[in-house]
């Protein structure tokens, strides 16, 4: 009886399993196509279902299971077809790849990526298939898997077409070339009379307007001589900060006039100017200025220049030397004639047809006219309506102005001209090229911007990889130190190390992390900014105070500058720019410092003062007196024995209010205050030079004969930066 019940129970279990398989198959709509066991019976379907004893249990179950195996095998086959083949060569990687994307690129499963991540500091509990991996982790996983990686970015770079604008080919047909004015650069040391010389030549008062006797930015002028000849002059600053501007002036010039003061002789910027002329391969004319002064010695100047391979004609060389007085206008026509004669020997000609080519001498921003550039045209003829490209900006020329601010219709080769119509101000020294249309100009600018971005990205990646490697090494060292600890012990050690930072406010953390001076730099022209930024590049005291240039640009101080200074807790430095009353009031209201200067070395001095203010104060010890220990003994006070030193003061005095230190064998073994100071049996406040005394310390410390007692005072002194800008 029991055995029969057991058999029926087994049949019911098998029947239930078969029904579940049938239900699953019917839901996939595969029952009619693949499942036909009923056709082998003579009974109709209704009677078959109503009479369970007619069901063939074994056949039914085996058929259902075989059908399930068939479907499972089919699904596995589909998955295998979808699986990517294993990569044996290079794996193409990119930034911001997820775990799943990397596994697909490598032809591995996700578990393989997880196994490789065990070698990193990543917490695997927080890693999901869609988690983004850092680039160094991606490279490490690929290398651990025995594969090589390549960047997908390089492929995109190769596919992009170069759409840059280039110069035309040089044409030497005599029929096309026409004479042009010589471009003359005046170089020399600070205050040797360069600007006075130009002022005398072009009859203007530029010299009287300049601050500190220093030309603060480059200017280009066309001088018309009484003989009808034209000479284009470039005036470059003599200050040490403007070395790049002097070098740029010689790159576009034909002749260099070297101005040397007769009473000063050869100076530092004189030597530098000679080097610029030699590097550019430009001939020299020597102008010995200030010859009207009693102490003038032109012959000494010529002899000093021999040491720098500048040999004048009267000493057997080929360099013309003219003694002048720029202030009184003496021999200026002789100098101009020497310049014209040398220009005729050089046979200066240019092609005035075709697309325009030139060089940006200076750029600035005008409130009414927008970005303006002073340029020298080298090929072609510039007219209104021309489309120009310079650097990463372009212009459709709206107006052209001469050196006196008058509008002109065209500018031929060798003529300086001010161009209006730029979208943004180009950098001084940029090459100007004319293109066919505005669309073509936009293509050129887009390409140059793209190239710059790629170069910057490449450099940034190198820096990032170096930093990541450095951090990785630091992390591995820390892990090695904590390797013998359990995870609970490691957590406790890290908590203790960072405990003092957890209770700081975010602002206090930032101040403690780094001491930074944020700068907003504004200049009148691009060359001035260039000079200031070159000086700031020489800053090498990051361990004292970090220097962060938040923004730099041309033009007067604006509300945007105030907002930036407020956001970064910075200081605004302006060179030859202005800040109107409303801007100054806004700055005062927000507590922003605006420092405006017209002389560059004063700006740098002010910057150094600002750096000094950011440095923490230092404690300086000032010695007040010195004494020697001649004998030692002890005094009993209550149950304690207190060591006492018998001393003689041999320098200065000992003041009980001050601090003391005990020196033994040139080592400081104690610092603190005295507990007692006596002369004979009397307590005293001060012991002077030559007097004997007995003293005890606030610490129970034994004395030795020969010890030195130093009385000193601590003063808080403001530190000064060790940065030396070079002038």
TrEMBL record:
Its main location: mitochondrion. CDD domains: IF2_eIF5B, IF2_mtIF2_II, mtIF2_IVc. Residues 179-349 form the Tr-type G domain. One of its GO terms (cellular component) is mitochondrion. One of its GO terms (molecular function) is translation initiation factor activity. It is found in: Mitochondrion. Residues 454-481 form a coiled coil. InterPro entries: EF-G-like_DII, IF2_II, P-loop_NTPase, Small_GTP-bd, T_Tr_GTP-bd_dom, TF_IF2_bacterial-like, TIF_IF2, TIF_IF2_dom3. Keywords: Coiled coil, GTP-binding, Initiation factor, Mitochondrion, Nucleotide-binding, Protein biosynthesis, Transit peptide. NCBIfam families: small_GTP. Belongs to the TRAFAC class translation factor GTPase superfamily. Classic translation factor GTPase family. IF-2 subfamily. One of the essential components for the initiation of protein synthesis. Protects formylmethionyl-tRNA from spontaneous hydrolysis and promotes its binding to the 30S ribosomal subunits. Also involved in the hydrolysis of GTP during the formation of the 70S ribosomal complex. This is Translation initiation factor IF-2, mitochondrial.
């Amino acid at each position: 009886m029991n055995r029969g019940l057991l058999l029926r129970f087994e049949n019911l279990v098998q029947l239930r399993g078969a029904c579940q398989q049938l239900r699953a198959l019917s839901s996939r709509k595969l029952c009619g196509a693949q499942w036909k066991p009923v056709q082998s019976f003579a009974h109709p379907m209704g009677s078959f279902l109503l009479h369970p004893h007619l069901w063939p249990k074994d056949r039914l179950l085996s058929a259902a299971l075989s059908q399930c195996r068939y479907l499972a095998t089919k699904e596995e086959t589909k998955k295998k077809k979808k699986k990517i083949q294993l990569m044996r060569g290079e794996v193409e990687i990119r930034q911001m790849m997820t775990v799943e994307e990397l596994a697909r690129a490598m032809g591995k499963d996700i578990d393989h990526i997880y196994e490789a991540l065990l070698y990193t500091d990543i917490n695997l509990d927080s890693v999901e298939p869609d988690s983004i991996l850092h680039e160094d982790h991606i490279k490490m996983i690929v290398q651990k898997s025995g594969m090589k990686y390549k960047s997908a970015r390089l492929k995109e770079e190769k596919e992009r077409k170069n759409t840059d604008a280039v110069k035309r080919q040089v044409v030497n047909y005599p029929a096309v070339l026409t004479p042009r004015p010589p471009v003359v650069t005046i170089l020399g040391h600070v205050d040797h009379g360069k600007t006075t010389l130009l002022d005398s030549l072009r009859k203007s008062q530029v010299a009287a307007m300049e601050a500190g006797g220093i030309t603060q930015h480059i200017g280009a002028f066309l001088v018309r001589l009484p003989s009808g000849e034209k000479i284009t002059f470039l005036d470059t600053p003599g200050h040490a900060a403007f070395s790049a501007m002097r070098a740029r002036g010689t790159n576009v010039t034909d002749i260099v006039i070297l101005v040397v003061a007769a009473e000063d002789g050869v100076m530092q910027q004189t030597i530098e100017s000679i080097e610029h002329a030699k590097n550019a391969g430009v001939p020299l004319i020597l102008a010995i200025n200030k010859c009207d002064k009693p102490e003038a010695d032109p012959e000494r100047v010529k002899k000093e220049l021999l040491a720098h391979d500048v040999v004048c004609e009267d000493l057997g060389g080929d360099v013309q030397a003219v003694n002048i007085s720029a202030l009184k206008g003496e021999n200026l026509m002789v100098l101009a004639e020497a310049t014209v004669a040398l220009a005729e020997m050089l046979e200066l000609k240019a092609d005035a047809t075709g697309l325009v080519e030139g060089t940006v001498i200076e750029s600035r921003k005008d409130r009414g006219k927008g970005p303006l550039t002073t340029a020298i045209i080298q090929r072609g003829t510039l007219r209104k309506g021309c489309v120009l490209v310079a650097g990463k900006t372009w212009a459709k020329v709206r107006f052209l102005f001469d050196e006196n601010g008058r509008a002109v219709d065209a500018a031929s080769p060798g003529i300086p001209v001010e161009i209006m119509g730029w979208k943004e101000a180009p950098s001084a020294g940029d090459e100007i090229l004319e293109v066919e249309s505005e669309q073509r100009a936009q293509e050129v600018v887009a390409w140059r911007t793209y190239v710059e971005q790629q170069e910057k990205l490449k450099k940034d990646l190198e820096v990032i990889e170096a930093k990541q490697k450095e951090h990785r090494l630091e992390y591995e060292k820390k892990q090695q130190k904590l390797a013998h600890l359990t995870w609970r012990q490691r957590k406790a050690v890290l908590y203790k190390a960072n405990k003092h930072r957890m209770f700081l406010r975010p602002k206090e953390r930032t101040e403690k992390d780094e001491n930074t001076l944020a700068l907003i730099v504004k200049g009148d022209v691009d060359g001035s900014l260039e000079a200031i930024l070159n000086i700031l590049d020489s800053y090498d005291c990051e361990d004292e105070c970090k220097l962060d240039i938040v923004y730099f640009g041309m033009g007067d101080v604006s509300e945007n500058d105030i907002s930036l200074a407020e956001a970064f807790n910075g200081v605004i430095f302006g060179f030859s720019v202005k800040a109107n009353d409303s801007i100054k009031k806004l700055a005062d209201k927000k507590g922003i410092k605006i420092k405006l200067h017209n002389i560059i070395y004063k700006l740098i001095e002010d910057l150094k003062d600002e750096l000094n203010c950011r440095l923490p104060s230092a404690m300086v010890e000032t010695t007040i007196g010195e004494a020697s220990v001649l004998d030692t003994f002890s005094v009993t006070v209550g149950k304690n024995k207190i060591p006492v030193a018998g001393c003689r003061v041999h320098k200065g005095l000992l003041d009980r209010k001050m601090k003391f230190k005990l020196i033994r064998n040139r080592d400081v073994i104690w610092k603190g205050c005295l507990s007692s100071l006596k002369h004979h049996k009397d307590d005293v406040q001060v012991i002077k030079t030559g007097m004997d005394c007995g003293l005890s310390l606030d610490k129970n410390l034994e004395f030795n004969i020969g010890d030195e007692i130093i009385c000193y005072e601590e003063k808080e002194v403001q530190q000064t930066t060790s940065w030396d800008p070079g002038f």
